Amino acid sequence: MFLTDTHTHLYLDDFNADRAEVIERAIEQDVKAMLLPNIDSSSIDGMLQLCKQFPDNCFPMMGLHPTSVKENYKEELDLVEHWLNKEKFYAIGEIGIDLYWDKTFQKEQEIAFSQQIELAKKYELPIVIHMRDSFNEIYEIVRRNASPELTGVFHCFTGNRKQAEKIINLNFNLGIGGVVTFKNSGLDKVVENIDMKHFLLETDSPFLTPMPFRGKRNESAYTRLVAKKIAEIKNLSLEEVARITTSNANQLFKFM
Fold it and tell me: What is the spatial distance between Cα 79 and Cα 82, in angstroms, rounded to a whole number?
C-alpha cells in the first residue's frame, strides 16, 4: 500500500527533536511520499535539506505563504523565482490568501497570489492554495487566470458541497485532512457526495491533527487515519483509497 501526504511541514521546529523518526514512522504506516510546501525565505534551507536527506520520500514546493506577505513581498517573490531556476520543485506552494489572522496586507496578498499563478504557468507547475476566510477572493482570482494548464489543489478544504463543485469545475483538486475526522465538521457529508478522483490526502502537520489525537502534534503517519475515515465514508477499502489518492497526487505533482 502507498499513501501520499500531499501537504506536510516536516521542516518546522516542532520536529527538531525527532524529525527522522517522524519520517520513518510515516513510512512504516505506508506513507511513502510527503510533499513539503514552502512558507518563505526562512524555511527554504531546512526544507531542501530534508528533501536531500530523504530523496525518495520528501518532495519540495516553492512559494510564498500568504501570512508571510509583508512590505518586502516583492523581494520574497524574486527569491521564489530564483529558486525555481535553481532546483527541482513539484508545485508552487503554498500560496493564496489568508484573511483570518490579519487583513493588513490583503491587497499585497492578492498581488502575490496572482503573480505566483503566473510563475506556475511559466514553470508548468501546479499550485497549492492556502485559503482561510477567503474563498470568494481566491475563487475569483483563479477563475480570472483559468487556463487548460492551470491546475492544483485547494489545500485543507473544509467548505461546503457548492464550493467543492466550483473548485472541481476549475480543474482543481480538494485536499482532505484531519478535519474530516472531526465530529460535526460536516466535511464527511461533502466527501460522501464527491467522486474520489478529486481528492488528495494531507495532514498539514504539525497542525490539524485528526482524531483520536486531536490537540496533539500532527505528523505524516496520520495520513493513514484520514484515509481510513474516507474509506469508511465512501464504503471502500483502505487499500483502494490509498491507490486512488496516490494516483491523483502523482498525476498532479509527478513525483513518481
Answer: 5
